[in-house]
Amino acid sequence: MGITNSSANELVSQLYVHHHSWIFNFLRRKLGCTHEAADLTQDTFIKVMLKDNLKEVVEPRAYITHIAHGVMVNHVRRKEIEKAYLECIKHQPESEYYSPEAKAIVLETLFQVDEMLDGLSAKVKKAFLLSQLEGLSHSEIAHEMKVTVSSVRKYIAKALLHTLKKRD
Question: Which of 112, 131, 134, 161 is 20 to 30 A distant from 31 in Cα terms?
Answer without folding.
Answer: 112
